[in-house]
Amino acid sequence: MRTEAFAVSSAATLLREAGESELLARCRTGDLEAFAQLVQRYRNRIFNLAWQLLGNRDDAEDVTQETFLQAFEHLSEFRGEAQMLTWLYRIAVNACKMKMRQRRFIEPLPEDFEPAEEIDWSAVEERWLLKRKIDTVLAKLSEPLRLVLVLREMHELSYEEIASVLGIPVGTVRSRLFEARRKFAQIWREMFGDEIR
Amino acid sequence: MNCERAQRLISLWLDGMLGSEGEQALLAHIENCPDCQRVRMEWEQVRSVLRSYPSVALSPEFDRKLLSRLKAHKAPAPPLASQWLSHPAFRLASSAMCGLFIMALTLLLLMLHTEKPTTQPEQFSRWQRHGLGREVVQWLEEIEGRERRWQGAPSSSSSQLPSRSYRC
Question: CA–CA separation, A173 vs A144, rounded Å?
Answer without folding.
Answer: 10
